[in-house]
Hints:
The chain crosses the membrane at residues 54-75, 87-110, 130-155, 162-182, 188-206. This is DUF4386 family protein. The protein has 9 helices and no strands. It has one domain (6-140, 195-211). The protein has helices at residues 6-27, 40-47, 51-82, 89-107, 111-120, 127-137, 145-159, 165-182, 190-211. By secondary structure, the chain is mainly alpha-helical.
Amino acid sequence: MPLGRGWVLAGLGAGVLGIVGGVASGMVNAVYDPAASGDAVAITEKLATQVPQIIAFHTATMLSCVLLVLFAVGLHRQLRARTAPDSLVPGTAVAGLGLVAVAQLIGAGLTTEFAFALTEDAGLVVPESAVFFNHWIGTIPWLWGGAGLTGLALFRAARQGAYASWLGWTSLVLGGLSALFLISPLQYMAGMTGPLWLVVASLGLLRTARED
Length: 212
């Protein structure tokens, strides 16, 4: 039965929203402000002025999470049809994206707790907790390293003739970088390469979805 293109468009949306969420979380920068460095109270007060950015981050990240799951399911089904019955590629691909979805879900999980408290009265928030929260959303949602495993899986599939070679090599480069970040102390750097790979891969997969 044809899959259509909905799942691929979901992947494209997840990648774009992943980039938007990353930009928004980067704008929540109270904890990185040199003027407030080491001063938990000052950091909390500045964080209270950045609630719109926090909400933008939360919304984009959670929408990306939902769309990523839809894309993962569609990709898994297509890979099963295009690779050998005993291939590890489909399972690896969906597992990698699952890791990203979990990181997004957990990464945005504290935003409601802090956003509403900061909006009502910054004094309701323990300053040290606010500092931790700012560090949390500046790292955990950026853990896109699992997408590197999916990129490498697509490279393997392309080598077997399942996809165009350019898609395979692109997945090797961006997926490989994301996978390297996954095992390094700079895991959050994958938040730059992972969403970019997803956008490029989704654009390439639109053609294969039409062929199916």
